[in-house]
């Protein structure tokens, strides 16, 4: 990543402050994402739409998500992070404005498209920036903390926005989010900067041996990268379904009231945040004890997603009550906990020069899950004998997807193996061999 010239932020920025700001960035990101789900029953009522149309609206968020992710990966080496992340957050705010008053379904679709496009590069950009502030062996925990913002955002948003939705109107929730986003932009304009490792090629698992001019296409063809894509695809099916549908599932499927559903959501997202940070800490401890990146990151992240799949499969079998709520928390926490760890895997196999591109393509590939999964869930809910029966069918399919993704991740992710191959094979030899073989699919996971 190109290092920007010294700036006014350079004298005030510190690694911990940057992590805090990026944590808040991801909080705002996911709060913006979940607001439609929190107000789902009210939005369906006021707009006169059914569950399938609501699922279409939730899925539309991801239609331009890959475009934004790839564009962000391209721009991250050309635009200073202060301007780039501020611009992204300003687009989020712009997408919220029409929803402060409209009841039009077409406008809802258009604003979700814009929000998805502008949120596409968010995680990749935040990851690239936070990695410039830490050496390779210290990246897992800060990356996990930044990723945990994706869980803390809904954790805070669920009770706060549910209050405004119930006490005032669901339009008010969008006003609140707009104000919060504006405050973050102002703070980032004064604080945001890259760190001292912006030009470093350091990485764990021997990635310091990688050629600094390694083409991104060679990284994309590794088993580790493809394994991470599949693992993220499965995990993002979980995130997109539960972000978009969990509030409706709790209220319309299980019969909880708005505030009770908000409390369950808050507990679930609290479990996700703790699991993300906890698993990052555990992975870091394993690395310090000499465990390979394959074990400390690949196996840990894949196993966590598999546990989430088992818990999701258990949900339809349990009666409404505390045990089911506990399983909701375990399912969400385990399936999401491996995110920070898995992002660190990409830095193991990608030099800084191509890391933004590689992360952007990763986000674009797994975001396809976000476009498909909520829409499919909506179709199942509308087509079933009852709302609960539709949700149970969808959760069963989701559990199977998570298990399959976990198994593929366990089989393919091996950073040490792929670093050796990338370091040993000359670029022209690898590219020549690749040209004579079918290209491995990146986004068809």
UniProtKB/TrEMBL annotation:
GO molecular function ontology, one term from the record: transmembrane transporter activity
InterPro entries for the chain: MFS, MFS_dom, MFS_Na/Anion_cotransporter, MFS_trans_sf
Locations listed in the record: Cell membrane
Transmembrane segments: 17-40, 60-76, 83-101, 113-134, 146-166, 172-191, 223-241, 261-283, 295-315, 321-346, 358-381, 393-413
One Pfam family from the record: MFS_1
Keywords, sorted A to Z: Membrane, Transmembrane, Transmembrane helix
Domain Major facilitator superfamily (MFS) profile, first and last residues per copy: 17-417
Membrane-topology annotation of the record: Multi-pass membrane protein
GO cellular component: plasma membrane
SUPFAM superfamilies cross-referenced by the UniProt entry: MFS general substrate transporter
The protein, known as: MFS transporter
Source organism: Epidermidibacterium keratini
């Amino acid at each position: 990543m190109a290092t920007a010239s010294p700036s006014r932020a350079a004298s005030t920025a510190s690694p911990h402050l940057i992590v805090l700001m990026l944590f808040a960035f991801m909080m705002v990101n996911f709060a913006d994402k979940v607001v439609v789900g929190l107000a789902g029953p009210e939005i369906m009522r006021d707009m006169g739409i059914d569950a399938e149309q609501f699922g279409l609206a939730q899925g539309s968020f991801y239609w331009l998500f890959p475009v934004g992710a790839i564009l962000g990966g391209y721009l991250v080496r050309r635009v200073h992070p202060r301007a780039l992340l501020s611009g992204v957050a300003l687009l989020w705010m712009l997408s919220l404005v029409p929803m402060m008053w409209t009841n039009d379904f077409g406008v809802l679709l258009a604003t979700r498209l814009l929000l998805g496009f502008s949120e596409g590069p968010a995680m990749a950009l935040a990851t690239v920036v936070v990695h410039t502030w830490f050496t390779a062996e210290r990246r897992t925990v800060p990356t996990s903390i930044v990723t945990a913002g994706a869980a803390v955002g809904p954790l805070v948003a669920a009770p706060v926005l549910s209050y405004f939705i119930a006490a005032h109107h669901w339009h008010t929730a969008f006003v609140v989010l707009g104000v919060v986003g504006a405050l973050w932009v102002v703070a980032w304009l004064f604080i945001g900067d890259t760190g001292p490792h912006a030009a470093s090629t350091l990485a764990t698992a021997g990635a310091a041996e990688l050629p600094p001019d390694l083409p991104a296409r060679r990284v994309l063809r590794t088993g580790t990268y493809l394994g991470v894509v599949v693992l993220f695809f499965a995990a993002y099916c979980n995130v997109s379904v539960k972000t978009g549908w969990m509030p409706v599932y709790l209220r319309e499927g299980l019969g909880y009231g708005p505030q009770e559903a908000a409390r369950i959501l808050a507990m679930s997202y609290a479990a996700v945040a703790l699991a993300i940070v906890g698993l990052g800490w555990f992975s870091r401890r394993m690395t310090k004890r000499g465990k390979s990146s394959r074990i400390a990151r690949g196996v840990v992240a894949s196993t966590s997603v598999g546990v989430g799949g088992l818990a999701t499969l258990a949900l339809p079998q349990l009666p409404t009550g505390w045990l089911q709520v506990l399983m909701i928390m375990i399912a969400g926490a385990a399936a999401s906990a491996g995110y920070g760890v898995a992002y660190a895997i990409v830095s193991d196999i990608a030099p800084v020069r191509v890391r933004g591109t590689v992360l952007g393509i990763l986000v674009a590939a797994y975001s396809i899950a976000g476009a498909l999964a909520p829409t499919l869930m909506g179709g199942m809910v509308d087509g079933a004998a009852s709302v609960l029966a539709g949700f149970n069918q969808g959760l069963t399919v989701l559990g199977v997807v998570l298990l399959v993704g976990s198994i593929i991740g366990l089989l393919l992710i091996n950073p040490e193996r792929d670093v050796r191959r990338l370091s040993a094979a000359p670029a022209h030899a690898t590219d020549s061999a690749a040209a004579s073989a079918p290209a491995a699919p990146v986004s068809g996971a």
